[in-house]
Write a structure and sequence with these properties.
The structure holds 2 protein chains of 2 kinds. By secondary structure, chain A is an all-alpha fold. Chain A contains 10 helices and 1 strand, in the order H-H-H-E-H-H-H-H-H-H-H. By secondary structure, chain B is α+β, with helices and mostly antiparallel strands. Chain B has 3 domains: about 300 residues, Immunoglobulin-like (Sandwich), CATH 2.60.40; about 120 residues, Neutral Protease Domain 2 (Neutral Protease, domain 2, Orthogonal Bundle); about 100 residues, Immunoglobulin-like, CATH 2.60.40. The chains are: A mainly alpha, B alpha+beta. The interface between A and B is large, with 71 and 61 residues. Strand 1 of chain A pairs parallel with strand 25 of chain B.
């Protein structure tokens, strides 16, 4: 339990020390989504801005008005609205993949990582991350496909039951199992990502194997930590929506925007927390001790010096933070 | 000792009393049960023969029959819950009230529609269907209705003379109608009796009939004679988009089912007895109804303590609910009682003694259906109070007790007269009970009203079919739904705006009272409205009912400029407007589509003044011009929102100063969704 606590608190500490990463990712998320929703906004402006009928969307929210808007030919098909949004969602995912090595590097350091080092880590590890993501996508895709197929088959059988709730209950149970298994896979590849960056590992396969070994070795601790972070995310989402629906006046656009963005900002934290947990675990269990080269005293009978682990990261700027040993 | 004797006497007295009461209650029904045996040999095709249609009133709160009874069905059926089959005998006594001799009789065999090459399945595959995609067809979905023997009393066994006919599409593989020529025509006013033995294979629920797991709904399950209507037999094939049509009469039905089954049916239960072979036989009796449906499931939970005090007498409410929906029993009862109250107040009395509400098996295609005194609802174990689907379905199906059950229109040809008129009254009743803008949805600040959803259903298929289309001739299933339900409701709501809400209410009441227990035509309905309104409404009916014209009026343009615009003036940012300036303002209205109708427009000026103008709506466009010391702020067509058939509500108004709030609000939702999806993708993928 205390070990779990140390993983969770260690990970959270890293997130808190590097809050700027959350801010930048949120800003990136918002900016890309703004572009992604531009088509929607433009179409809606053209129809709603001069119509008194649209007022029914402001004072309360008349669902039928929204349906009618979506049905208007001049609004365009929903695919024309959702496709750009999905493209920009994909861009956010790519941006996350590009900048994540810098985040890992920043989390592992005990000082404020200089911008140059952040982007250097991103550049150095870009190709390694792409390779890792491809492998992760294949593994996770296959496993998810199999799990959902099994869950679907069970659900199909359950539909025949006279217990009406059974299909739902089985579906929820199946989703919970799938979530746990997929989270385990995510832990594996998070550890591999941490290892690639922090160990400066060029051979991605070695980090994958190391990640797998340690996932299995520390599964309970890691999984518990990841699940706790996910539960926190779920609470934040539900809480945010509750505040939005209950406390924000229907006509308050600014209030709605603020609550929505605050919720989305907070929602970023749990995932970064999980990555912090991965870095914390890596530092505790996966960091390879490096033996410092000692000059050999010729003809000496002096005892061998004890191996000393040194930090495997690039040396930080001397005035701010001298290199320290990681425990 | 003395007390014991007193007790014994008391018990005997009570038993005797109850038995006597039951005997008296069943007495009026009993003769029908016995009638077949008594009258079989005396069957006659001559007027004044021994046959007759009973004038029982056991199932209605009326001392005399309420309909002109044409048929008397006596059915003895045994359901095999394992094979999902029904073995039955049917004795049909038919009273020839057509005014002419009848030499042939067509019968519906609806269950034969559920065969791969039958018209029903072919159409469902082609144009779509509510419940099934027909991407594949499994044997369990087959249904069939086979006549084992067919005898016309006094004329012999005519089984070999039965002929399948296809009056609508000539599809020789369709066996949903069978016709029999009788050697001796039945004279006007005479009775004829048919003795039929038949075998049903119930399908896994299709079109609100059949079985699902251990549940069964017996709808359209027995050979049913066609209706002599407008000088000919009206007996259409079973079509994917149409429902039914039959004559009023008396039903005496014995259902034998396994002992564990809980049973519900049309009419009143007059007898229940256990049989030595682990079955129970339930005997039901129905008066002044034109169909009979039943259901059985071992898992129904029954709520039957509810009684509605109707204008003609008490109505016993019986709810057969799924165990997982038991906590919704009060919701079921509440909406049924409220609906009954509204219908009795607005349209007329409900004369039947019972109403059975069935909550069918989840996942079955049996939800949301109407039969006389018997309806099915549709809900699930998760039915939050803010989503009023449960109420919507129950209200709608109950409404059919009036618009179908009593005002028995031809559902094959005039589907709008039951579904559409019912959708209109559904809007009215739900508006009254649940609120105009919240009758479907009222949850977390999100609302939706039934009238708008009916309109949305219509505008999506507005130019495809007229309302007066035959039920089986619609372009698509969506068109059938959007026009018969949505357009009719919207057209009648708009009519309310033309003749006034009170006049419309009076017309509906008059129509119900005049045509209950008959088979009115579309003209009967439309003429009743004209008579009550005292207006010629043909201009409206021709477009809205008989035509497929579409309405879309818009405020095309609004313009205001100073009359002395040519004079040089200081212009620029921050310069105040001249308060004494006179503006020439013009509002252009445009008729974009071909439906014409007078419309009103309300024009608001910057000084707070409002002007209402009337436009006959005939020309393609018109304009209204003003010279005032104020600019036009907005113009709104149909400011009282009386028109429910305009295809586009957004262009009915023009507000000069743009209000971006609605877009910003929707965009905030869309932005949130986009960001959240991005985060979820990034969460799992990297």
């Amino acid at each position: 339990m205390s070990e779990n606590k140390s993983l969770l608190s260690g990970g959270l500490g890293m997130v808190m020390r590097n809050k700027r990463y959350i801010f930048w990712f949120w800003l990136l998320n918002l900016t890309l989504a703004e572009f992604g929703s531009a088509a929607f906004r433009k179409s809606a402006h053209a129809i709603l801005d001069h119509s008194a009928y649209a007022d029914r969307l402001v004072h309360g929210f008349d669902f039928s008005v929204m349906l009618e808007l979506f049905a208007r030919p001049e609004f365009g098909p929903m695919a024309a609205m959702s496709t750009p949004a999905l493209y920009f969602a994909f861009l956010f995912f790519l941006a996350t993949a590009i900048f994540l090595p810098g985040v890992f590097q920043g989390y592992a350091s005990t000082y404020r990582l200089p911008r140059a080092d952040f982007f250097r880590a991103c550049g150095t590890n870009l190709w390694r991350f792409i390779r890792l993501m491809i492998i992760a996508a294949i593994v996770m895709g296959i496993v998810a496909g199999i799990l959902f197929a099994i869950s679907g088959a069970i659900g199909k059988k359950a539909v025949e039951s006279t217990n009406e709730k059974l299909p739902f209950e089985l579906q929820m149970t199946g989703l919970a199992v799938i979530f746990l298994i997929m989270t385990t896979l995510r832990i594996w590849f998070d550890l591999a990502e941490a290892d690639i960056v922090l160990n400066d590992q060029r051979a991605v396969r070695k980090s994958i194997w190391a990640g797998l070994r340690h996932t299995l070795r520390g599964l309970l601790r890691l999984l518990t930590s990841y699940v706790v972070a996910t539960i926190v995310a779920a609470i934040m989402l539900v809480g945010g929506l509750w505040v939005w629906m209950r406390l924000v006046a229907p006509e308050s656009i600014f209030g709605a925007f603020m609550v929505a963005q605050l919720t989305l900002f907070l929602l970023l934290i749990p995932r970064f927390w999980q990555r912090g947990v991965a870095v914390s675990y890596w530092q505790q269990k996966m960091m390879v001790p490096v033996v410092a080269a000692q000059p050999i005293a010729p003809q000496s009978a002096a005892p061998e010096p004890a191996p000393v682990a040194i930090e495997s990261m690039p040396a930080p700027p001397p005035p701010e933070a001298p290199p320290t040993l990681q425990s | 000792m003395q007390i014991r004797w007193k007790l014994v006497v008391l018990v005997v007295a009570v038993v005797f009393g109850v038995t006597s009461l039951i005997s008296r209650e069943t007495a009026s029904a009993a003769p029908q049960a016995a009638a077949p045996a008594k009258t079989a040999s005396a069957a006659s095709a001559e007027p004044g023969g021994a046959l007759s249609i009973p004038d029982t009133t056991l199932a209605i709160n009326s001392p005399t029959p309420m309909s002109q009874r044409v048929v008397h069905y006596e059915i003895d059926a045994r359901y095999d819950a394992v094979k999902h089959t029904v073995e039955a005998t049917e004795i049909l006594t038919y009273h020839n009230l057509t005014g002419q001799a009848l030499d042939h009789f067509p019968f519906h065999l609806y269950l034969n529609g559920f065969q791969p090459k039958a018209t029903w399945v072919s159409e469902a595959k082609l144009v779509g269907n509510r419940d099934t995609s027909y991407a594949k067809w499994e044997e369990k979905e087959y249904g069939s209705e086979e006549i084992k023997s067919f005898e016309v009393v006094g004329q012999g066994d005519l089984t070999k003379d039965l002929q399948y006919i296809q009056p609508d599409d000539g599809n020789k593989d369709d066996k949903s109608v069978v016709d029999v020529h009788v050697p001796k025509p039945i004279a006007p006013g005479a009775y004829v009796q048919f003795k039929i033995a038949f075998h049903d294979q119930m399908p896994e629920t299709q079109a609100r009939t059949g079985w699902k797991r251990d549940f069964v709904l017996g709808g359209q399950w027995f050979p049913k004679v066609g209706v002599w209507w407008q000088g000919a037999w009206n007996c259409h094939q079973f079509h994917a988009m149409t429902e039914f049509f039959a004559d009023f009469g008396v039903y005496d039905v014995k259902l034998t089912v396994p002992q564990n089954e809980v049973v519900g049916a049309s009419g009143v239960l007059v007898e229940e007895k256990s049989n030595p072979d682990n079955t129970n036989t339930f005997t039901y009796h129905g008066d002044d109804i034109h169909d009979f449906a039943w259901t059985a499931s071992p898992r129904y939970k029954v709520k039957d303590d509810g009684v509605f005090q109707g204008q003609m007498g008490p109505v016993k409410l019986r709810f057969l609910l799924q165990p997982a929906h038991w906590d919704q029993a009060e919701r079921h009862e509440r909406i049924i009682k409220q609906t009954l109250e509204h219908f009795e107040k607005w349209y007329g009395p409900y004369p039947y003694k019972t109403l059975t509400v069935v909550d069918p098996e989840p996942g079955s295609a049996a939800g949301g259906m109407e039969y006389p005194t018997f309806i099915t609802g549709d809900t699930s174990w998760w039915a939050p109070g803010g989503i009023h689907l449960l109420e919507l379905v129950l209200e709608h199906e109950f409404g059919h007790q009036y618009w179908y059950g009593m005002v028995a229109t031809n559902e094959f040809e005039d589907a709008w007269m039951d579904e559409g008129i019912n959708s209109y009254t559904e809007v009215k009743v739900l508006d009254s009970i649940l609120g105009k803008d919240t009758s479907i949805l009222n949850m977390a600040g999100i609302t939706a009203g039934e009238r708008e959803l009916q309109r949305l259903g219509y505008i999506s298929v507005a130019d495809l079919d007229p309302i007066a289309q035959k039920g089986y001739d619609y372009a698509t299933y969506n068109s059938y739904g959007g026009i018969t339900y949505g357009k009719t409701a919207s057209v009648l709501l708009t009519l309310e705006g033309i003749i006034g809400e009170d006049t419309m209410a009076k017309a509906m009441h008059t129509y119900f009272m005049k045509y209950r227990f008959t088979h009115p035509t579309k003209e009967d309905f439309l003429k009743t409205i004209e008579e009550v309104a005292g207006k010629d409404l043909r201009w409206y009916f021709n477009q809205a009912v008989y035509g497929s014209k579409v309405m879309d009026y818009e405020v095309m343009r609004v313009d205001s400029f100073p009359v002395n615009w040519y004079e040089k003036k200081e212009m620029g940012f921050g310069k105040k407007e001249d308060k004494n300036a006179v503006y020439r303002s013009t509002v252009w209205l445009h008729r974009k589509e071909d439906f014409t109708m007078p419309v009103e427009v309300e024009i608001r000026f910057s000084n707070g003044e409002k002007i209402r103008e009337h436009w006959d709506g005939q020309s393609r466009w018109t304009k209204f011009s003003y010279e005032k010391k104020a600019k036009v702020e907005s113009a709104e067509l149909d400011p009282d929102h009386k028109i429910q058939i305009d295809r586009n509500n957004f262009n009915n108004s023009y507000v000069v100063e743009a209000n971006p709030k609605p877009t910003h609000k929707l965009s905030t939702y869309w932005l949130f969704l986009t960001q959240w999806v991005s985060q979820v993708l990034a969460w799992w993928a990297v």
